[in-house]
């Protein structure tokens, strides 16, 4: 088992070195990738609902399986984060705005999210990246994770940064290369290339001669 894990790590590092993604062929999930959404969920749950939970405790994407709290309370937090992200302390992951701004100068950036509506995220970007010209960030809200595949295919996306392993399982057989953004809930064994941060993402993109 130790040998297999070591081989997997070496293989992922090798792919990381070799991979150079054209800017027009990559797209991104929002929650857990661009924004530090689940950390905010934990902070609100602890402060407003007195839930005893740490960020690293969220070892399942279906977080209510591992967090002991009332469903109604959890849904209240989710609704606030979903519809009012621009009015609360939902922060970008470190480096996200820098990389997305660089990409936007080359080609419009595409975000595909399972959120039900895109407009609150458009307002969120105006708050956190006001320097981005209108239209340089495109957000498509699918409503479900399974609906991402069709959108990505229609948009000609070949690489997708995602934090949900089950979505990666859906994309990979259809010719879209999923790249996992490391989070506590996706560290179970899988074969996908994993990035730890936006510096890692930047290193995968082919910037040569495009800026």
UniProtKB/TrEMBL annotation:
GO terms for molecular function: 5'-nucleotidase activity. Gene3D superfamilies: HAD superfamily/HAD-like. InterPro entries: 5'(3')-deoxyribonucleotidase, 5_3-deoxyribonucleotidase-like, HAD-like_sf, HAD_sf. Pfam families: NT5C. PANTHER family: NUCLEOTIDASE YQFW-RELATED. One of its GO terms (biological process) is deoxyribonucleotide catabolic process. It comes from anaerobic digester metagenome. This is 5' nucleotidase, deoxy (Pyrimidine), cytosolic type C protein (NT5C).
